[in-house]
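Throughout our pipeline, every protein is held as a single compact record rather than as scattered files. This encoding replaces a full spatial description with a residue-level series of whole-number codes. The remainder of this section carries one protein's record, kept here as part of the documentation.
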Amino acid sequence: MKKIIFTLSILAISLTSFAQEADTFEAKAVKLIKLTAGQQFDIMTEPIIEMVPEENRDAFKKELAESTEGLYTKMAAVYTESFTEEELDKILDFYATPVGKKMVAVTPELTKKGMEIGQAWGMELQPLMAKYMKQ
């Protein structure tokens, strides 16, 4: 009986330790997402926020921000499947460098300009698409 209790105790400690490591791994993934995709999410939601009446925007923004935490947690699962914890550490280390910080700082503007260029290109493609849709 003592052996069973001892074995179960060791197992419980091991699982708790593993869960704490997983939480740390997930937290690193969430941090990376907030550094990178978080800004892009902000840019994508700007037009949605502008559609909400002015008097309700602050409340909407607050609830939207709260909902993003769940989104980041779900996205973290994808990151932890794609990267090892060591790789996430290296990526986060990069974002802590001056170049990495600059990348984070300029990404919103790059995203906006990229979206504008992409929209213009999409308009340019319409005649090409129409040409092949007729055939």
Q: What stands out?
A: The CA atoms of residues 26 and 46 lie 27 Å apart.
